[in-house]
Write a structure and sequence with these properties.
The chain has 181 residues and is an alpha+beta fold. Helices cover 16% and strands 34% of the residues. The longest helix is centred in the C-terminal third of the chain and has 11 residues. The protein is elongated and about 85 Å long. It starts with a strand and ends in a 7-residue tail after the last helix.
Length: 181
């Protein structure tokens, strides 16, 4: 999301904090089966920072994926807080990724003084994604033998071990094994 040059000039010369709203589209990969459903709504404030700018705000979007246990589609809403600074980086650091200043990530301003908020938005969105996508907290998943959806009821598969190499262990556990003398 590029910030208009006129707005940047207003922030820099008048030392103002201005509201910044709009929509941002992220075409990059979110990883796994997750994808964004539509544009990301952006709402925040842009202010002057020593050597650059600071953005504080939030992103709101919907993410679509598959449940990690049962593979049913999951549609979830995310509200992601974002805070980042954008400053002119020393030339030796120009090719590096964001470097944190304190606890707020810092991104380099582009060479012609333009401000692109996309790297901060993308990184904040990636960090906000759940590690495990579940349709319900107590999702039973799929039967490991027949693949039936266990939320619809028992599939009828037996509890006997599938691997015949483990059958002596099963016999010992059930008391049918040889007795020691």
């Amino acid at each position: 999301m590029q910030v208009d040059r006129g707005l940047l000039l207003k922030v820099r010369e008048r030392n103002l904090t201005v509201p910044l709203t709009g929509q941002w589209r992220d075409e990059t990969d979110l990883g796994g089966d997750l994808r964004l459903e539509g544009a990301v709504d952006v709402d925040g404030l842009l202010s002057r920072e020593e050597g650059g700018y600071r953005f504080r705000g939030s992103l709101t979007t919907r993410v679509v994926g598959a449940c990690d246990r049962c593979m049913t589609p999951v549609n979830m809403e995310l509200h992601v807080p974002v805070e980042a600074t954008f400053t002119t980086a020393p030339e030796t650091d120009a090719s590096e990724e964001a470097e944190p200043v304190g606890e707020v990530p810092n991104y380099p301003l582009e060479k012609d003084g333009e401000l692109d908020l996309s790297p901060a938005f993308h990184e904040s969105l990636i960090f906000a994604l759940p590690m495990k996508v579940l349709c319900q907290e107590d999702c039973l998943g799929l039967c490991p033998r027949c693949g039936a959806l266990l939320a619809q009821g028992p599939c009828g598969c037996s509890d006997e071990p599938v691997d015949p190499r483990l059958s002596p262990l099963q016999a010992l556990l059930s008391g049918k094994g040889r007795s020691e003398t």
